[in-house]
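Q: Given only this backbone (235 positions), what sequence would you predict?
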């Protein structure tokens, strides 16, 4: 079962995306001198597009392409994002072969509140659907987590600019309604520069480490279901 990647929900273990942002994002923490390299703070949603490649696990083919679109708010006290994604990942080792075609669709939304020193924490929800030649399955999953924005500034006289910025975010994805595989685990997201900085292009890398059990195929067969739940893996 696929979990949505942050900018990118999947059993994909690694996803790298380059985001084309329609408008610059807003500031994430107090500047040391001025805020000329950050957007004025506000609650206006900013649209973004992205595309990239994912290294897939969990019985998928090794490589998939992914695209997505979303909205983001990055204000002084409040962070929010919502996005939809699609990739062409398909199963090659799922015990139901031949299964030549497939794709994943996902929705993800999260709300975070800023704490002190660039830290933030919050909750979210994700939906994903795996569709293959032979079957499809989907599920909703709650998430919780947080992260930090980091800005490195350099100053010459009275002029200070950001020389480097990044955002690290960790969300724990719970099984939710996924009764087939009960996929769960941490999802790490790295952005450079931070989405709070001014700019149009951002690199995002996401890494999920997920635990799951063998697919439950006959829920009313108690003995078989116990065996399948006991057969656990990590990807």
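A: Predicted residues:
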């Amino acid at each position: 079962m696929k979990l949505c990647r942050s900018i990118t929900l999947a059993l994909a273990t690694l996803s790298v995306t380059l985001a084309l942002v329609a408008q610059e994002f807003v500031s994430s923490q107090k500047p040391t001198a001025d805020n000329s390299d950050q957007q004025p703070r506000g609650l206006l949603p900013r649209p973004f597009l992205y595309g990239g490649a994912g290294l897939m696990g969990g019985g998928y083919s090794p490589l998939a392409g992914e695209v997505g679109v979303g909205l983001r708010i990055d204000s002084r006290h409040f962070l929010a994002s919502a996005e939809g994604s699609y990739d062409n990942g398909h199963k090659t080792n799922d015990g139901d072969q031949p299964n030549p075609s497939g794709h994943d669709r996902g929705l993800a939304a999260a709300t975070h509140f800023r704490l002190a020193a660039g830290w933030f924490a919050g909750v979210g929800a994700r939906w994903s659907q795996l569709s293959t030649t032979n079957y499809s399955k989907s599920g909703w999953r709650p998430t919780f987590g947080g992260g930090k924005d980091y800005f490195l500034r350099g100053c010459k006289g009275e002029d200070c600019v950001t020389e480097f910025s990044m955002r690290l975010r960790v969300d724990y994805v719970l099984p939710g309604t996924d009764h087939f595989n009960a996929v769960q685990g941490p999802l790490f997201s790295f952005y450079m520069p931070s989405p709070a900085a001014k700019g149009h292009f951002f690199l995002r890398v996401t890494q999920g480490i997920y635990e799951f059990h063998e697919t439950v195929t006959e829920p009313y067969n108690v003995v078989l279901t116990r065996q399948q739940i006991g057969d656990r893996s990590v990807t």
